[in-house]
């Protein structure tokens, strides 16, 4: 017998392990979100349910996702399967101005729409301090308006299952790593529609709804149009053209509980993953993972939407160490029997490979 709403409630929602990816919301009329908190508003009568199957915190099996997405076991224990690692930036001046860093996620989304690869793009609109929301973008203005990082966990995937079920247009989706894993689970079930491009953004943690309560006491930050997390710095805000900052010690208690046991900071099952370079804010780190991702990047490059350079070799260990550190913390939690990490199905060989990586 399968599992469903009771298990989702007990193992994920009541245990405060929901990442607010939004995937389950498209499968059940009784599940709703209020202020980035997902909850049943009415008991669901079913014993089994898609809500549990698509939830990245009900279970996450990296080997099975590798087979589904890459068709092969992973070749890199820390960064996940990939066949290219680059610095990249958008070439369009508007995209660069609106983008968080080099604007690569926005440039690729726009290219997917404007080239006809996708008919619509699921992105996260709003501002970083005013409850971001899912946007189904069908034109340049809507994609540009959704550029920039919102550091809270917006449940962007809420419309995904419905859009795929309707079929018709191919979709581009931009999401955090937990959303990428959930989108792959949804994709495996909704055969009518097609994900033309799954663009993952790096994410080491996101802010909980407590962030909005914190903002209620900080009217000076409420109209921020940009937030950033500079390397080794405090949380930076841009409000009315002025810079403001909040010490990280005040921000850390606002991190979502589920993020503490997240094993995938780089969106390992995306077609491409995009992060900061932790080096030059005008550029992004770009990881090409699938043949579809390679095609998207090459076509966007040929069309003049994107500039791509080799990743500086001396910076690869810096990226790998940051990701490995997070994975090792989560493996420790898993192996010490912490229930928050029990959703992970990681074979011993893969754990050993994470531990051994980088050792001579
Ligand atoms: C919560 C969070 C934490 C992050 N932490 C890190 C980190 O520690 N290290 C790192 O290298 N990168 C991190 N990132 C990614 C980084 O901030 C940039 O989003 C990424 O590098 C893409 O940059 P860009 O210039 O291409 O962005 P843009 O071109 O501006 O595109 C950003 C895209 O992300 C979407 N988006 C914005 N906010 C969210 C959200 N909350 N959920 C889902 N989608 C969203 C937007 O709709 C847009 O499509 C984080 C992102 C998020 C959402
Ligand atoms: S599917 Fe996503 S939004 Fe739903 S309970 Fe699981 S983590 Fe939360
Ligand atoms: S840290 Fe992991 S669980 Fe938390 S929002 Fe980012 S990808 Fe999702």
Average pLDDT across residues? 95
> Which ions and ligands are bound to the chains?
flavin-adenine dinucleotide, iron/sulfur cluster
Number of strands: 13
The rounded Rg comes to: 19 Å
Oligomer: single chain
- Strand order within the widest sheet? 5-4-6-7-11-12-3-13
Q: Proportion of β residues?
A: 15-25%
Number of domains: 1
Largest sheet: 8 strands, mixed
Helix and strand succession?
Answer: HEEHHEHHEEHHEHEHEEEHEEHEHH
Give the distance, in angstroms, between the N- and C-terminal Cα atoms: 47 Å
Which structural class do the helices and strands define? alpha+beta
Query: Could you name the ranges where pLDDT drops below 50 across 5 or more consecutive residues?
Result: none
Task: Tally the helices.
Answer: 13
Shape: globular
Q: Considering DSSP H and I runs of 4 or more, what fraction of the residues is helical?
A: 25-40%
């Amino acid at each position: 017998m399968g599992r469903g709403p009771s298990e989702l409630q007990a193992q994920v929602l009541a245990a405060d392990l929901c990442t607010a990816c939004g995937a389950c919301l498209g499968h059940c009329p009784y599940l709703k979100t209020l202020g980035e908190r997902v909850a049943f508003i009415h008991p669901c009568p079913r014993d089994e349910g898609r809500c549990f199957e698509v939830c990245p915190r009900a279970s996450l099996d990296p080997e099975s996702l590798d087979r589904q997405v890459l068709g092969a076991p992973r070749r890199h224990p820390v960064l996940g399967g990939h066949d290219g690692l680059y610095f990249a930036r958008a070439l369009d001046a508007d995209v660069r101005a609106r983008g968080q860093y080099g604007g690569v996620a926005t440039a690729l989304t726009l290219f997917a729409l404007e080239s006809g690869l996708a008919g619509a793009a699921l992105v996260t609109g709003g501002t970083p301090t005013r409850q971001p929301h899912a946007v189904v973008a069908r034109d340049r203005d809507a994609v540009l308006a959704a550029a920039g990082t919102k550091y809270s966990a917006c449940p962007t995937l809420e419309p995904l299952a419905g859009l795929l079920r309707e079929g018709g247009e191919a979709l581009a989706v931009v999401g955090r790593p937990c959303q990428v894993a959930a989108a792959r689970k949804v994709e495996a079930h909704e055969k009518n529609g097609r994900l033309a491009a799954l663009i993952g953004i790096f994410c080491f943690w996101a802010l909980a709804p407590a962030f909005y309560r914190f903002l209620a006491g900080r009217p000076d930050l409420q109209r921020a149009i940009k937030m950033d997390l500079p390397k080794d710095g405090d949380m930076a805000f841009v409000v009315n053209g002025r810079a403001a900052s909040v010490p990280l010690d005040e921000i850390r208690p606002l991190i979502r509980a589920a993020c503490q046991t997240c094993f995938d900071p780089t969106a390992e099952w995306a077609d491409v993953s995009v992060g900061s370079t932790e080096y030059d804010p005008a550029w992004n780190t770009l990881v090409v993972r699938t043949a579809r991702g390679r095609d998207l990047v090459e076509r966007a490059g040929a069309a003049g939407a994107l500039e791509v350079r080799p990743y500086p070799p001396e910076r690869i260990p810096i990226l790998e160490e940051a990701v490995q550190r997070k994975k090792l913390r989560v493996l420790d939690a898993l192996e010490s029997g912490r229930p928050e990490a029990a959703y992970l199905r990681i074979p011993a060989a893969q754990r050993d490979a994470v531990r051994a990586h980088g050792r001579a």
